[in-house]
Amino acid sequence: MARVDLLAASYYNKTQNEAKDRVLSMKKNQIKYRFIRRFLPFLLAGLLLTGSGCAPDSAEHTESAYIMNTLVRITLPADTPAAAYQTVFAEMARLEELFSAQRADSEIARLNQARALSPLDPDTLDLLSASLDYTRLTGGAFNPCMGALTELWGISGETPQVPGADEIDQALALCDPQALFLDGQGAAFQAAGVKLDLGAIAKGYAADRAARVLREQGVTRGVISMGGNVVVLGEKQTGTPWRVGIRDPLGSADEIVGYLQASDLSIVTSGGYERYFEQDGVRYHHILDPATGYPADAGLISVTVVTADGTLADMLSTAVFVLGARQAETLIGQLDEPVQLILIDKQKRITSLGDELCPFTFTAAGGGYHYEG
Ligand code: AMP
Ligand code: MG
After folding, report:
1. pLDDT surpassing 60 at residue 331
2. Going along the chain, which residue ranges are E strands?
3. Nearest ligand, CA of residue 134?
């Protein structure tokens, strides 16, 4: 475990040094660079959201709500009835009440507590079933049964801390996805202490359901944005694709490295910068490597997945962050669905892998990034 600690330490020291270098080089051409990276999205598009930015104009209207610990923004044609937004928010809130391990009365929390629960809501069964399939598909890099480990680190809580190596080993022993059984009605853990944490996939599922609810109401254009999870329906009212900015993982929340032009796709970004804490000068982020029990360190600092299915995209963004670029390429090569990846590594190289579902425009040359296509 000490080896992993050291790796994590050198990663973050390096990242911090890179950040310092970046500040120095930025000072040289600060005005031009800041103008291009900060204001270009506004000029082009009018809006930049955290994690990803979409671009409404006066033909569109945005409503927001706080669901799943995230500011959810729904942008629809301006003449869409207000009820459409409310129906979508209600559906997302319903899913949060099912899936959130933090809500004591959710199905997932009750299942974690009681070790067995039946019947489960069809959406819970659906998401659990997909999660087990994806665990197999990713060789365990995506693991929905890591509740014991994520609780131990407490990165999403008030008092996160680096656990001892023994504690990590003990928690890892309770992260076995093979302990979870589904019977078409309910679910049960065959081992005590195993707990679900659907944080890597639940938002993608909720965004998919939100898109479905909109389509059922006849809405064919719009954007559902949940920070790092975005679904775009159709095109803008102007007939042009939506622009979705990819956040600069080393910059502030309103800086991007480039943008995608997308229609009828899901776009999800995972990055260590999204949630982390620092201890003794070392940064520890929230995406854990199920093989080590420590924050994943496969050379990537940001992973963006583009594909039609938002649940798949959310799962993949986490799994690819854990696996790294080389294994990610093999993984997406095995999928039936077309998938595009935009990866940013610690050397500030940006690469696009897989299918070309939507064009990516690189805007961050001034920030020391290199786009390798
Ligand atoms: P995301 O932001 O979609 O990459 O999901 C990260 C969240 O998923 C974390 O905050 C944890 O709750 C959970 N998580 C962390 N590592 C993993 C992993 N390897 N597999 C599945 N869930 C994870
Ligand atoms: Mg994810």
Report:
1. yes
2. 52-53, 60-67, 70-77, 116-117, 180-182, 187-189, 222-226, 229-233, 242-247, 256-262, 265-271, 276-279, 282-285, 300-307, 340-345, 349-354, 360-362, 370-371
3. 1
Q: For residue 178, give the DSSP letter.
A: G
pLDDT at 57: 64
Q: Is the C-beta atom of 41 inside 6 A of ligand 1?
A: no
Of 12, 30, 369, 60, the residue nearest 237 (C-alpha)? 60
Tell me if 314 CB under 6 Å of ligand 1.
yes
Cβ 270 under 6 angstroms from ligand 1: yes
CB atoms under 10 Å from CB of 230, counted, come to 30
145-184 residue pLDDT tens: 999 999 999 998 889 999 999 999 999 999 999 999 999 9
Atom of ligand 1 nearest to the CA of 155: 10
Using most ligand atoms within 8 A of CB, pick from 150, 318, 321 the residue to mutate for ligand 1.
318
Amino acid letter for position 264: D
Encode 124-151: b = buried (16+ Cβ within 10 Å), e = exposed.
bbebbebbbebbebbebbbbbbbbbbbb
- For a ligand 1 pocket test, name from 203, 286, 331 the mutation site with the most ligand atoms within 8 angstroms of its C-beta: 286
Q: Report pLDDT for 251.
A: 93
Ligand 1 close to Cβ of residue 197 (< 6 A): yes
CA angle (68 as vertex; 318, 288 as ends), nearest 5? 25
How many angstroms separate the alpha carbon of residue 358 from the centre of ligand 2? 20
How does pLDDT run across 102-119, given as a tens digit for each residue? Answer: 999 999 999 999 999 999
pLDDT above 70 covers a percentage of the chain that reads 85
Q: Is the pLDDT of residue 371 over 50?
A: yes
Residue 35 has pLDDT above 80, yes or no: no
Atom of ligand 1 nearest to the CA of 314: 3
Which atom number of ligand 1 is nearest to the Cα of residue 315? 3
Question: Is the CB of 298 within 6 Å of ligand 1?
Answer: no
Q: How many helices (H) and strands (E) does the chain have?
A: 11, 18
